[in-house]
Amino acid sequence: MNMLSHLPFAVFVLALAGFGMVRINTILTYFQQEEYDSSRFLGAVLRVRLFDVLATLGLIALVIANTFIDLGTFVWLIAAALLALISVRERGYTYKKKLVATERLKRIRWLARGFYLISLGPLFVHPFAVFAILQLVPLWIMLANRLLRPFQETVNQGFIDQAVEKLQAFEPVTIGITGSFGKTTTKHIFAEILESAGPVFYSPGSINTVLGLTRNIREKLQRGHKYFIAEMGAYGIGSIKRLCDFSDPEFGIVTAIGNAHTERFGDIATIAKAKSELVEHVCARGGIAVYPHEILEHQPFADLRAQYPDLIRTVGDTADADFQIVSADLEDSNWAITLQNTRSPSEPPITYTLPLLGDHNILNSALAVAMTYLISPVTATRIPAFSKDVEQVQHRLQKVDAPGQPLVLDDAYNSNEVGFKNAVTVLSELARQRGGKAILVTPGVAEMGLEHDRVHGRLGEHASALCDTVIAVNPDRIEAFASALDKTKVDYHARNSFAEARRLVSELSSEKDVVLYENDLPDLLEETRLL
Question: Are 432 and 512 in contact (CB under 8 A)?
């Protein structure tokens, strides 16, 4: 029997081709979130299970069934229907960060599709080749990315050169901000306060890579902008240096050194070394850097402080800090903060109001105020007028209040241990004030590496002491968190997704309650899929 002469086989091949187009889009969603980095993406393939299961098992079952019941050519139609059903199901997947059809992604997608269609060739030799075809989709995406890299690097460099030329032509005062956490919130606070000294340009959200900043500079930087705040993310030693070489900041803020992204760096010492590259660059060019006094415990920052004592200022609640947080009192959901320049004790302290929740925002705002003072001392006198109107940063302990509904605290963006604990503390306090329950919804925190279980154990203990209800999302990845909860004190629930958790919240909550959504990043990058 010549299979090639049969229409059912052709239908099966077409269904397999269509299946591959859908699967490539699915895998590309994750590949884009890993910033087109194949080495990081390989980890996601195993962690999130981005290999085929449903189609493979379904076809194996069909092969077994065909040995007992001879389905003839109908076996191809049944197989085609199976692939079509899986494709329709997969096309309905939703993502918190949707696939963005950039020109780069389109090139990778077209080339990966070409490789996939070529890979269908072995089917005409033996139909069992389908099992290899189903599993090789991630390989075609990585291969397409690798082959296109030289072209993409040329394109990227052209864009980077244009952005650098624009920066050099417009000459804004550039301030770099980095840190293990707190970068984006500090950037927003700083931008709103510094605006009183002149127009400020800064990247929205958490854009903190060379290419991300490049695009924003090319599209949005205007000649009238007096200041440019560049958020700087790091993926290893040298990342911050590259960003500094690109933007050449005259001032720098380091917000914190902590165990966020330990999986990426390996250990805290490496994190500290990577973040110190901003301070090293700024001080080498005669600029001024500001960072928390407490991170002097990390050798790179202690060494830089000793090397550049006149160019580095520290901020903290100790009298040894150059800017001391003298007091921070919560008054009607607003912080009343007093900051003293200890290098000039005769100067009056700066007292300002901050309408943002969370203890961590005391230090974040103090860093922003201190840097504003150093850049433009006269502006310091206007800080109290501007700080009281600082807007909430989206998805960072953002209050969402609606009539007849529980108060929602949206702290969904990429949590860390310190921020997690502070958010839970705020949750507990607000719930107490309202006379309702403190409800925590969380999938835990991401990129902890070897610290994953220890961190989640501590977070579980903290939540257990302050929460009435805890809903763990994708609980299998945070067993240490669930185990640390005292189930005799906490009403514990486990759900596989945020959608399921939200439905449960609507059933459990009342108007007086407070609901904290703490971190949603692992729901995309670490939720195990069934493809």
Answer: no
* Whether 290 contacts 339, CB under 8 Å: no
Q: State the Cα–Cα distance between residues 191 and 173, nearest whole angstrom.
A: 13
CA distance 386 to 382: 7
Burial of 17 per CB tally in 10 Å (0-12, 13-18, 19+): middle
Tens of pLDDT along the chain (531 residues)?
444 447 899 999 999 999 999 999 999 998 988 888 888 788 778 877 888 999 999 999 999 998 888 888 888 999 999 999 999 999 988 776 788 888 999 999 999 999 999 999 999 899 999 999 999 999 999 999 999 999 999 999 999 999 999 999 999 999 999 998 888 889 989 998 898 889 999 987 778 889 889 999 999 999 999 999 999 988 788 899 999 999 999 999 999 987 655 566 667 888 889 999 999 999 999 999 999 999 999 999 999 999 999 999 999 999 999 999 999 987 767 889 999 999 998 889 999 988 887 788 899 999 999 999 999 988 888 888 777 777 776 667 777 888 888 998 888 776 678 888 888 988 998 898 889 999 999 988 876 666 788 889 999 999 999 999 999 988 888 889 989 998 888 999 998 888 888 999 999 989 999 999 888 754 455 556 678
Looking at the DSSP bridge assignments, the partners of residue 175 are 229, 251
Domains and CATH numbers, the chain: 3-150 (no CATH), 171-387 (3.40.1190.10), 398-525 (3.90.190.20)
Q: SS3 of 443, please?
A: coil
Among the listed residues 392, 334, 37, 400, the one whose alpha carbon sits nearest the alpha carbon of residue 184: 392
Would the CA dihedral through 401, 402, 403, 404 be positive or negative?
A: negative
**Which residues share a beta bridge with 341?**
323
